[in-house]
Amino acid sequence: MTDSHDIHARIDDAKHVASDAARRTADAVEHNPLAIVAGGLAIGALAGALIPRSAKEKELLAPLGRTLGERARGAVQAAREAGASELQNAGLSKDAAKDQVKSLFQGIAKAASTAGSAAVKTAANKA
Known about the structure:
Layout: H1 2-31, H2 33-50, H3 55-89, H4 94-126
């Protein structure tokens, strides 16, 4: 009888452990669903990386990969051109920026020269 009682006790313990694990999992999903989704994606990516592709998958997916790559390159190029166009329309070209920096440095140099001259004149007048 002890064996039967022991087996039933272990089964009850296993049921409680499983029930607690299920409850904790449900609580985790409820409180942080994005982490669960991210974890699922990570597990899926890992499984996909570890499971070798079949010849049929390669045959079927290679054209899709090329098409997606071409579209991505086209989208990047279009974004680059649109951004450059907007900067040009706003007067923010490379040459305009160089001119503004040059003008700024000339203004700083002139201000420093004027300040230096004023300091020299003031020092000479007091002497």
